[in-house]
Amino acid sequence: MACTVKVNRHGRLAFRLYWNGMESWEGTDYKDEPENRRVLEAEALIISREMDDGIFEYLHHFPHGNKAHLFRREERPSFSQQTIEGFYKSWIKKQSERVRPHRVKDYKAAIGHVLKTRIGKVRFGAIPLGFLKVSDLKDLQNKLKAKGLKAATVNGIVHSCLRAMLRDARVDGLVKVDLYDRAFFKPLPLTDTKPSIDPYTPEEREIILEAFKTKRPHYFPFVFFQFWQGTRPSEAIALRRADVDLTYGTAGIHKSVVQGHEGGTKTVRSNREIHLHDNVVMVLREENPEPSSVSPNDFQFTTPEGTPIDESNFYKRQWLPILRAKKIRLRPFYNTRHSYVSFLYSIGAKSGFISSQTGDSIKTLESDYAKYIKEADDNRDFVENQIQKSETQAKPRSDADVSPTPSEIKKPPKNRGLKNGAGEEGRTPDLMLGKHTL
Exposed, middle or buried by CB within 10 Å (0-12, 13-18, 19+), for 437? Predict the structure, then answer.
């Protein structure tokens, strides 16, 4: 934390502040002259001392500074007396028109939770929007972290869901300042360990497929498709008959079904046409009914009743019972996607092909699945072999090994030796061991 005097881009002296994670320029009307610089440097020294002592007050020194709006707690006009909770009730009703249904559900869960959190003696939801300060958001963030929530979860609540609502409140004129100015308020550092990819092994895959084929045959094509095409479950559930071309072995991935609501795919990159592997084409052909009995708009995978598959219900009622019966360690159904990608990498498939199949970027794939990449394993074996080779070649020899053989002794030219104690003719022989001169 410090305050220094610099020359700004207008050629005037200015204060440069570094305080509590904030960086700010505070301009003055003084020209860059020795006398002016001495005066401002004296004031900068006082400000720096106050920062170190924890008594610095921004508005005292810079009442009209660039960040002054973040420190004022002025009373807003009457319309801004609306509470956070009151605004939320009207705001959430409009979200179904602009975001996907599962996002609305996330908003309700996240913001509904923070409205009840107490900031000092008052519930967060009871604070008037016009009186909301950055310090209130910081307190909320700390309270959620203290409850044991992971940093990523807290950031998702405060810096995504709540921020979206407060952004709209600012658009409506109910909030006058940028409460998410990064100079004052930043997300929690993501120090939590990122979960590693946890695919089903090839042996587990075959056990699961055989179990579905014999115990739950209706869902066998769906599970087989997931293990051998690696789409997101929501993408496979959304597939229609018209999207799947068994003649040319392709399928168009352009939609997804999340929590019973059909919409677009996760990202623009996720819109793609995938290659269907031969074994998948064979299974789908065997299971497909007569073309005359289905409509192109029918779902490719359904429940026995013919309704679209609900991913959550499928996981609880179909997937988990099979895993428990076969004593396979429980993991999400989504991990069939990891099984597909890790298998392709282990057999040497290129990242470009895998990216076109899964819709993930090459950077993401090579970061998440690095340990499964065959080239990485080959390079690892090469490195280990070279380490062993280097250890063997560079290992020191014993004294007996160091003694030169007569053929290794090379006599130097005459008259180049030392005269004192250098042997009978005043010469010291150079001993050559391979390429090393001792």
Answer: exposed
